[in-house]
Amino acid sequence: MGANTSQVSDLSNNHNLKALVGPESISENDPFWNQLISFTFISPTSSGESKLLEEAVIPLAKTLIENNPRSGNFSALVRIFLGRTKELKISTECQDQLFIWQAHNALLMIRCLLKVFTREMSEEELHQQFSYQERAVVSCAETSNEDLLEELLSNLIHLIVEVPLLDITYSILFEAVTTLLVLLSYQLFHKDILHDGIIFQHLMKGRCLCLTSRLVKTLLYNFIRQEKCPPPATHIFEPKAEGGLLYGLASGVASGLWSVFTLGGAGSKAENDQEHNPLPLSNQSLLLLLVLANLPDGPDWPNPYRQAITCFRNTQDTSSPPAEHPHTFQINFNSLYTALCEQQRSDQATLLLYTLLHQNTNVRTYILSRTDMDNLVLPILDILYHVEERNSHHVYMALIILLILTEDDAFNRSIHEVVLKNISWYTERSLTEISLGSLLILVVIRTIQFNMTRTRDKYLHTNCLAALANMSAQFRCLHQYAAQRIISLFALLSKKHNKVLEQATQSLRGRQGDSTALPDYAQDLSVIEEVIRMMLEIINSCLCNSLHHNPNLVYALLYKRELFEQFRMHPSFQDIMQNLDTVIGFFSQRLEQAGSDLSVERVQEVIMKGAQALPKDRLKSLYIHQWPRFRHLKSEAASTSVVEPRSKSPTI
C-alpha cells in the first residue's frame, strides 16, 4: 500500500506490501512503516467485494508465513500498531485524525493477515509468528519477558473500552472488535473445546481479566447505540492539484462491512438480501459479546465474561452488588430494552435476548415488569410467523423466549389486556382488532401446522404446545378466530391419528405370514397421541380456570363436538375427556332448552349465561398433574434446541 489510493486489484503489485511480506527484515525505526500505513484504501462495501479482498490477501499472507521466521516483519508491524495505540486516547481528545487514521490502517492490515493465519496454522504456530523478530540486536529483557500476542489482545481491549465512539474513531473501534473475533475464530476449526488454547488462557486469566466488566459493558453499549457508519467521504486533507503524498480517512469507514462471522450457518433470506450493513460496529460488538459469553469455563475457574453477562444491574438499582459477583456493572435497562425490541430481525440479537432472559434475573425481572410488552413480543411473533424465511436456530430461539416469558402468570394475564389493531403482517385473515394473547396463540398454532406439513420436528411441536399450556390457565376473552384455530388444530391431529391407525391396520392385514419388518406404526401412534393429549390438556386447563371468560372457545367446542367422540373411550384420554364431556353436555342441554334455529348471537348469549351457572366443582383439575412437565420441558429446550435442531419425527 502506501500513500496513494489503493484498490483490491493493486494489492498483489504493491511494492510496499511486497517488502512487508518479503524475506528482508525492516527495522521498526525505518521510515518505510510510516509510508506503509499511510494509504487510502477503497474498502469493500458488499459481501462480494469483501470476498475479493480476502482472496487478494491470501497469497500475500502465505508469502509472509514463509518469510516471517527470517524477517520478523509481522511482529514489527504489530509493534508499530502498539506504539500508536498508547497515545490513541489523547489523539482522540485532540482530534488528531492523522494519528488515528494510521493506527487504523496498521490494524486493518494485521486483521487481514490474521484471518489467513488462523486458517493456515495452529494457535501454537500463530504464537510463534508473533515471536519472530528482526535480526537487529534486541535487548534480552524485551526478548524474554514480552508476549506480543498477549500485548496485542490487551491493547485491543484497552482500545475498545477507553477510546470514545466518534466519527473519527468508528473505523478503528470496528477493526479492534473484529480483530478479536478473528483471533477467537480458532474454535471454528476444532470439534473439541479449546480449554488449553493460548488465546483462551490470555482472555480468561491473563492481563485482560481485569477489563472483563468494562469490555462487556462497552460492547453492550455499542449494541444499544446502533451507531451507523460515518459517511465515507470524510477526508483529512483535500487533494492538491499538483499531487504529492496525500492522506485520507476513507480506508476505515466502509471496511466495517466485512463481517467475519454469521450466526447459525446460512442467514435468513431477509439478511442475505441486505448486502450493505449500515451498523457494522453494533453488529460486530454483539457477535464478540456472544462469543465471549459462550466461551467454556476453565478447569478451575468460571468464564468471567459469562459472569458479567449474568449479573449486571440497572443503573437505577441503588443496592450494593453481591460480593460473589466480581464482574458486575450497571447499565441503562430502558435503553437495552429498546434496542432489543428494535433488533430482533437478526438472530444474534434474538440470541442475546434469550441469554439475558435465561441467565440474568435482573434483566428478566425488568422485562416482565414492562407495561409495553407488545414492543418485544410482536417482533418475536414475526419471526415465528415467517418461519419459512428464518433459519432453524432463529425459530428455536424465538420459541424458547416465548417459553420463558409464559412461565410468568402476570405476563400470561397482561398479554390478553393489550389490544392490537390492524396487524398487517398476518395475512391469513384480516385482524382489525385482537388481543396480543390471541395473536400469540394464532402464530404458535400456525407454526405447529407449518411444522406438520414441512419439517415434522417432534420437539418443535412439543415446545409450541408447552407455550400454549403455560398460557392456558390465563386465557381471557379469546378472539373468535383464535378459538376456531385451537379446535381446527385438534381436528387436524385427529385426522392424522385416524390415518396412521388405518395404515397400521391395513399393513397388518396385508402382511400376515410375512416376516419382513413392519413400519413402526406403534411409535408413530404414540407420538401423535402424546400431542393430542397435550392439546386436550390445554383446552381442559382453559375450561377449568377461565371458562366464563372464553365463550368463543365454548362455541367452537360445541360446533365441532363430534371430533371428540372417538376419544371418549380411548384409554389414553378417558380421564381428561371427563371434563370436556361435562362442558359439552351441559351447554348442549342449555341450547336445546333455548329452542331450535338459534342465531349466532343467541347461541353466544346462552353460552355466556351458562358459563356463569356451571358449578366449578363439576370440573376436575386433572391438568395440574401434567403442569410440571411443561416447565421442565422449557429448561430442557433452552439447553438444547437453541444449539441445534432436534431429530425429526416421521409422522408429525
TrEMBL record:
Entry keyword set: Lipoprotein, Myristate
InterPro entries with a match to the protein in the record: Dymeclin
Lipoprotein among keywords: yes
UniProt superkingdom: Eukaryota
PANTHER family tied to this protein: DYMECLIN
Family membership noted in the UniProt record: Belongs to the dymeclin family.
Name this polypeptide is given: Dymeclin
Organism: Oryzias latipes (Japanese rice fish)
